[in-house]
Design goal:
Layout (H helix, E strand, L loop, with lengths): L3 H12 L2 E2 H19 L9 E3 L2 E3 L1 H7 L4 E2 L12 H14 L4 H10 L1 H6 L15 H9 L3
Antiparallel strand pairs: 1-4, 2-3
Helix pairs in contact: 1-2, 2-4, 2-5, 2-7
Amino acid sequence: MANVFDVAQFILAKCGRIPALKLQKLVYYCQVWSLVWDEKPLFNEKIEAWANGPVVRELYDEHKGSFWVEKLSKGNPNALSKEQVETIMAVLEFYGNRPSQWLSDLTHSENPWKEARKGLEDGERGTREITLASMAEYYESLQ
């Protein structure tokens, strides 16, 4: 199975330098649509419901302190299968040209993030997991 760094490296290879916030949201939507279209996760790393939206902590730790991300020290985009590449490309086609804030606002309006944040104040730090089941259930209903 691919890991989040393989996916992130592929995104960076296709999009070039992008804001860290956008990279996190694109990785999230790649996971989401892999669950729906391919009926399996794209990567094993957990996605947490942070105040600014869904975040993969391991990826955050890699780009922490940087507004822009151009390259990562981990990950191999060649580790992705043809099916995984097709899913990521479809996600990039729809979400890739959207601004970071638009993507963040979208995740904030959707149930998986909102449900994982229940009981937390706006802006309050939190590390609750956005479960694969909640993502699959919600986004499946949007098809």
